[in-house]
Amino acid sequence: MAITVEWPVRLQLVEEGGTTTARAELRTRAATFTGHGTARRSPDDRDVPEIGEEIAAGRALRDLAGQLLRVADDDLEDAGAAPPRHETRIAYGWTDQLA
User: Residue 98: is its pLDDT beyond 60?
Assistant: First the structure.
């Protein structure tokens, strides 16, 4: 039997002074996630609001996707189905240059 679940995403865009910000909100059965994105127009570029909206929205949705994937990874690990995590190496010497 197929189960269909719908997760509507609410996307809010605000443009002010050459900067467009986006906020993407997703409510699932388990949690609410909020992604954020920003686009800044160069002073030398033409004012085309649609471009800033597309970039800011894309960044907010990418942020949202990253959050969902991290939660899924944690859930897989809790269920014992995740691949082993790689250990983080500790850097020695010149760490400021390696970061």
Answer: no
Q: Kindly give the residue spans of alpha helices, DSSP state H, lying in 1-99.
A: 49-78, 95-98
Q: Could you give the CA distance from residue 19 to residue 87 in angstroms, rounded to a whole number?
A: 39
Contact in structure between 22 and 53 (CB atoms under 8 Å): yes
Q: At 87, is the secondary structure helix, strand, or coil?
A: coil
For residue 15, report the phi and psi dihedrals to the nearest 5 degrees.
-115, 130
If DSSP codes are grouped into helix, strand and coil, which group holds residue 38? strand
CB atoms inside a 10 Å sphere around CB 44: 5
Phi-psi category of residue 94: left, alpha or beta, with phi > 0 → left and psi -120 to 50 → alpha: left
pTM of the model: 0.79
